[in-house]
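User: Modeling request: complex.
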Amino acid sequence: MLDKHGIAKRIAKEVKDGYYVNLGIGIPTLVANFVREDIEVEFQSENGVLGMGPFPYEGEEDADIINAGKQTITTLPGASFFDSAMSFSMIRGQHVDLTILGAMEVAENGDIANWKIPGKMVKGMGGAMDLVASAENIIVAMMHTNREGESKLLKSCTLPLTGVGCVKKIVTNLAVIEVTPKGFKLLERAPGVSVDEIKNATEGHLVIEGEIPEMKI
Amino acid sequence: MLDKHGIAKRIAKEVKDGYYVNLGIGIPTLVANFVREDIEVEFQSENGVLGMGPFPYEGEEDADIINAGKQTITTLPGASFFDSAMSFSMIRGQHVDLTILGAMEVAENGDIANWKIPGKMVKGMGGAMDLVASAENIIVAMMHTNREGESKLLKSCTLPLTGVGCVKKIVTNLAVIEVTPKGFKLLERAPGVSVDEIKNATEGHLVIEGEIPEMKI
Amino acid sequence: MINKKVANVTEALQGVKDDMTFMFGGFGLSGIPENAIAQLVKLNVKGLTCISNNAGVDDFGLGLLLQQKQIKKMISSYVGENDEFERQMLSGELEVELIPQGTLAERARAAQAGFPAFYTPAGYGTEVAEGKETREFNGKMYVLEHAFKADFGFIKAWKGDAAGNLVFKGTARNFNPNMCGAANITVAEVEELVPVGELDPNQIHIPGIFVQRIFQGLHYEKRIEQRTVRQRS
Amino acid sequence: MINKKVANVTEALQGVKDDMTFMFGGFGLSGIPENAIAQLVKLNVKGLTCISNNAGVDDFGLGLLLQQKQIKKMISSYVGENDEFERQMLSGELEVELIPQGTLAERARAAQAGFPAFYTPAGYGTEVAEGKETREFNGKMYVLEHAFKADFGFIKAWKGDAAGNLVFKGTARNFNPNMCGAANITVAEVEELVPVGELDPNQIHIPGIFVQRIFQGLHYEKRIEQRTVRQRS
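Assistant: Request completed. Predicted assembly structure:
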């Protein structure tokens, strides 16, 4: 079974040379730490920066240079700042190659819910609805089950949707799963996790074809 | 009767303190020469400059600094350059206070034609269609009649339209005319021009109420 | 040069009244119009509709207006950092319209640019699209969204001049440029009001035509919401 | 940093074929991609659809492609400075679609920004709106216009770096930024290719994400169309 860093590490393998990548808040943010150093990747943040670098050294924080999680950041050579309309031109116009974001629920048809629990939690969608409606390539990073042990990979979402039929791949603490017309196709198991464990933790239809390899991280 | 410079001089009186003004090619360009010096006005050109100044001194022309007529220009302190989309945001968003442009025909309902003579002349509308569709305040600068002596103030336009019901005021070599629901309302006569002369040169319905004063320039 | 400079925040906010709609630049606490917000607190105008990507934190930014219950309705994309906000919303005291962030930016830009409406894919198939026109283009579904309408827009820039020209810094730029000229009156406050002619005409983010009033802001706190640092190795 | 630099114009235009649709930045002869145009003349690709505000003059700019009869169709707003253009158009050799200048800019920007369509007032009630959907918003009539689709976009900037970041100068900016990222492949040529990190991140007009290939342009003529000067007093 993977921890958050393990999930991030596995997702980092999906990041290809020359990709512009938008990372959501939470586990997705950790992905930046694990991207191979021999490939060229640029991170975009929807509040208006391309070419994000690591966090600043103490004393070098700048209130005017933050990411979408409101964290102080730095920029790398070749970076640029821009306004919100242009930022979403990058996203909506499909210039960003890969979007990695968290979710509360994903359905077997690729629907995603991650912005609202009616009557309980209403933080808002931020840029997530633009991202999922636009991106060609969306990977969800999340735990396979919620705190109550209930599956987050469902037949259909119960929470208000963020987007419809948009998720392509899911990486959880248990598995790598592809969203296909037939349902959740199991691609890889997390180290030490059996197919049955994944089956039990998945409410939606799980497609298992042939031998399922263990992830290589 | 006025010449081109006279028309420009009369129109310059319509330019008020604090106005952003877009000047079309031809007579409108001359208006800048006659604006009172004790008021603050900025000239916008749709190719992407606000705060245009006079032509450059010889040897100081810059191929990268031109107006919409492709003429070399200078800029004044406080000027800015911007892209075409932003330029038309200024125009379409009604941030430009006054548009002055030429015309081949104006109809008594405010229609204007100035971009095409089918089978003969097809230069294109440039920014004129955006300007006339957006501006609250449009003044047409033109000769009252064409080279054949035919009226350019018509019951309805015969040439392909640039915009519908948009012209508010017309200044010609003969008269100042307001476009009203009743037709062309004669406001002022050019020096030495009689009401009858204007009547004869106007095909559309001319509204004459009371004494028509001579222009003060 | 058309002069947009006013003496101070009091003059800049003249005409502000109860029940108006305002737009505020800023993302989180970055690039928010601190002076205008402080003045709105002082004026204690009520019944406001506020268009802003976020709602500040409990004791800063728009949170200050929430504390005084000046806000009737918020139009935002993300409001996760504010307990008082959540309390007022869940109790029904505060009306809230949550919209996608890119839609928020573009509805401002549409108002600035004179577009009444545009089609965007964001929110299709979700409750955000409920009651809105949807339409297919090239095999993909889109939602029709409309330009904002607001009485005042409050903008924070880094540098500006009396002609109203603005330059922003870093990610404090965010929604600020898109909201300039999107409201009936755009009020810009700047960290540094420079002499006209000092800003490079080639490097002005927002030309003065989109700004009605500009003033030198005072006492910027520029609070950092999430101070994240790394170790020196 | 993702490297967009290519060695020269030959490499930059690889993939260009007959019957493609191209976008060209520039207003008149100002800010046109001189190197890309020269290479297109050399490649002698035919049957082109060209989206460009103007069509150059007889012996410069897109006029060079017209001379070789490489252009099948022009989409422009103003074409008044070119006799060969007028001849080909009136004889029916050349297909011409004239559209309002603001619509041209926004159809490019819509392609860049992922908007399929937008409503604009320009051209309502004229032949430009014939066959197009029209619609009333707030008592005013608008025309529905669609995003451009193009194979290549040819852009000319003042400065750029290997990351594809661009800075434009004066009114040579014009349509260039709006066309970046609006075609499948955006090719930028620059007067000065500077080392990555030299451009101020705050002052980049077009971030590199909108550019696929960038190269150092050569031998810019930068011809002035209307040399207008005043007397020294």
